[in-house]
Amino acid sequence: MLVKTRIFELCNGEYRNLSELAKTMGISVSQIYRVRGGKRYINQKFIVGAIKAFPNHKLDDLFYLVPESPTVNNSQQQHSATNSTDEAAIKEKAKSIPPAPEGSPQLPRSIARTSTAQLVPP
After folding, report:
1. In this structure, what DSSP letter does residue 66 have?
2. pTM surpassing 0.90?
3. CA spacing 20 to 30 A to 96: which of 58, 62, 68, 80?
4. Domain 2-66 belongs to what topology?
5. Which residues have CB under 8 Å from 16's CB, separation 6+?
6. Rounded CA gap, 87 and 103, in Å?
7. What pLDDT does 111 receive?
8. What ranges do the domains of the chain cover?
9. Using CA of residue 80, residue 83, residue 89, residue 94, what is the dihedral sign?
10. What is the mean pLDDT of each run of 10 residues along the chain (122 residues)?
């Protein structure tokens, strides 16, 4: 759950601007703008400040809860897709590795694949 606020609707009648509201709340103007823009979550200091700035309002008038929407991490999906492609390429490359020259020590094929896979960056 996320905490959202209604103070921006309420401040229009009670404060001239967001700077005045921030001063009354005891927080920075940048924090006010970040919360309003959704770039920062509401923290305890913000809640306490809102209660100070709007003493005639109930907590339920100032804040409400919304369910957190699930987000998909695109970089993680791309990373796993890239890895599966890389793994397929490594397996194909391992199949095409020529045999070692006569008399040189050879690793079992399973170890050779493992050591090759470890060389590829994650």
Report:
1. E
2. no
3. 80
4. 434 Repressor (Amino-terminal Domain) (1.10.260)
5. none
6. 30
7. 46
8. 2-66
9. negative
10. 93 89 96 95 96 95 90 59 56 59 55 45 48
